[in-house]
Each structure stands twice: as structure tokens, then as C-alpha cells.
Amino acid sequence: MGRRKQTRGNCVFCGxxxxxxxxxxxxQSCEALQAAQTEAxxxxxxxxxxxxxxxxxxxxxxxxxxxxxxxxxxxEDLDAYLRAIWLxxxxxLSAFHIGPNRYTQIFNDGWSVGDEKPMNVxxxxxxxxxxxxxxxxxxxxxxxxxxxxxxxxxxxxxxKHPIFLMARNRMPDIPCMECxxxxxxxxxxxxxxxxxxxxxCDAHWETHQHDCENYGGxxxxxxxxxxGLCGYVGPAEPPY
Length: 240
Ligand SMILES: [Zn+2]
Ligand SMILES: [Zn+2]
Ligand SMILES: [Zn+2]
Ligand SMILES: [Zn+2]
What we know:
The chain is an alpha+beta fold. The protein has helices at residues 20-26, 31-40, 75-87, 188-193, 202-206; strands at residues 8-10, 17-19, 48-57, 64-70, 94-98, 101-104, 116-117, 132-137, 143-155, 163-168, 185-186, 199-200, 219-220. Helices cover 17% and strands 27% of the residues. The radius of gyration is 20 Å and the shape is globular. 30% of the residues are buried. One zinc ion (ZN) is lined by residues 187, 189-190, 208, 210.
């Protein structure tokens, strides 16, 4: 597809909208973010390591998240968050690949062989800045993500939750194959039975020749890299 426009998103602290790479830079210097951190750091209690993560879909990079994650939260917390905002369709297995180890739901119980480990491990025992961690959801129709550890700070988190959403991409431009306006759904008859395009807006779905009866209807386009895979229909909303 050549050089494509980067998807855009907003900084949750100051509200500014920027393209993907601009926003990554911005979060290192946003004054509103720094003020929020200073405020958070006034809370009582011990400081802890807090990680700035960027999550990218490994396929296009159009879908991305900036998360802040506390060090005493676990890979299980991150897995649950990614499932809620992007991935969950029918309870598939998932895995993080860190060094020689694979952190997953089915792990070495003394009977199976391999380097499988459970996900209930605190990320401060694993994460180091500049790490890029491959993650997979569903080992059949796989969604592959990359988790980049951009930074770590010593302080207090912004919320009581394990993870705080700092930014996410807005819905990428996906043109309707008839009119070029933003598409809202995929015709599965077109997708599976022809080699042509399959994206449609609501208006053109109304007059489209297919009904997707064999597939239980058309598939909605949602702001997630899992759109179009398995039975994913969203809602692609953060869990908290
Ligand atoms: Zn900002
Ligand atoms: Zn599924
Ligand atoms: Zn249209
Ligand atoms: Zn069709």
C-alpha cells in the first residue's frame, strides 16, 4: 500500500490530537501529563516502578495504545486489558513471549514440557525499557501485537487500576468500496466468496446485492486490530 497516512489520536492529559509518531514524542514532554504526575506523586505510600507501554498491532501499526502500567500489576492484568479493549471474541488462549519464556494460560505443570509459565507474574520482575514483547491472542486466527516498554518512572500511578489509558488511535480511514465515505461494515459474502473489496457504508449496505445470510450477517468495523477476524464484533472499549 506504500506510504500511508498514520492514524491519529488524542493525548488524554491535554487533549491535543496528533499522528502516531508525534504523539509518542509528545507524551515525553506534555506539560499537562507532567502536572498530573506531580499531583499523583503527592499521594501517600511507597513509590513504585510505573511503566509507559506502547501497544501496536504487528500487522499494520494503525492500531496503537499508550498505557501506563504499575509495576506490581501482572501480565494477567495486561492480558485482561488487551482482551477488553481490542481482542476478546470467544475466550481464546493468549501468550506473551519474553526471553526464552512464554507466559500463557496453560503452563508447565510438571507434566508438560517447554518454557511455558503462568501470567500471574508482576511486570516489574520482567519489564525493562526498550523491550519489544511479542504477544499473541488466539493461536488459530492469531492477532499479533507488539508491546514496547518505552519508559519507566519511579512514583505513584494516576489511578487505582493496574493500567491507565493515555492515548489510543482513532478509527482508521476505511473507505466504502462504493462511495469512498467511511465504511462501517464488511460484507462477508464479498470477503469470503470474491477476491474483491468488501467494505461498505450503512447506506450502500442497504442496496448491496448480498445479505451475508450464511455468515450470520455482515461484520461491523470497530476500532480494533481484531476487526474481521474470527467472530470479533467489539465493543473495543477500555474496561475502566
Ligand atoms: Zn498532552
Ligand atoms: Zn474467536
Ligand atoms: Zn458508501
Ligand atoms: Zn457483498
